[in-house]
Amino acid sequence: MSKSPATREFARRERPLSPHLTVYRPPITMTMSIIHRITGGALYFGTLLVAIWLMATASSQATFDWVNWALGTWLGRLILFGYTWALMHHMLGGVRHLVWDTGAGLQKHTASKIAWATLAGSILLTLLIWIAGYMARGA
């Protein structure tokens, strides 16, 4: 700590505390912003899985079979489901930001509605993609 009298005086004063997460409820727009950043990072790892799968298709039959088996397990499918959701959520978040760049939807209540729509839309699109995939696979 500094030896300056001004600093010591400032350190002795009562400082206001920021509201803790148990007191303050983050708004949906903040939550969606954080999730948008997290999904952006997750897409890097998911895209590595896609690249591994593509390399396996160009490799031997045994490698391709092993990668298909790994992605076909319950854990592999869960990871692919999460990747699909992250892709849809990040895409819709990008569309939301594109709308905001035009100056539309910046009012507090409108931004909140768009944030909720982003979440609902990403879940709906993910489910539709997986249902369509299972229907195409069974046909």
3D architecture notes:
The protein is mainly alpha-helical and 139 residues long. It has a single domain (27-137), classed as Up-down Bundle (3 helical TM bundles of succinate and fumarate reductases). Helices cover 79% and strands 0% of the residues. It has five helices and no strands. The protein is elongated. The mean pLDDT is 90. The chain crosses the membrane at residues 34-54, 66-88, 114-136.
For the record, the count of structural domains works out to: 1
The chain-level mean pLDDT equals 90
Uncertain segments are none
Euclidean distance between termini CA atoms:
71 Å
State the secondary-structure class: mainly alpha
Into which percentage range does the β-strand content fall? under 5%
Sheet with most strands:
none
Portion of residues in helices? over 70%
Order of helices and strands: HHHHH
CATH superfamily: Fumarate reductase/succinate dehydrogenase, transmembrane subunit
Number of helices: 5
List keywords for this structure.
single chain, 139 residues, 3 helical TM bundles of succinate and fumarate reductases
List the helices and strands and how they pair.
Layout: H1 5-12, H2 28-58, H3 61-72, H4 74-101, H5 108-138
Helix pairs in contact: 2-3, 2-4, 4-5
Family: Belongs to the cytochrome b560 family.
Cofactor: heme
GO molecular function: electron transfer activity; metal ion binding
Brief characterization of the structure:
This protein is mostly helical. It has five helices and no strands.
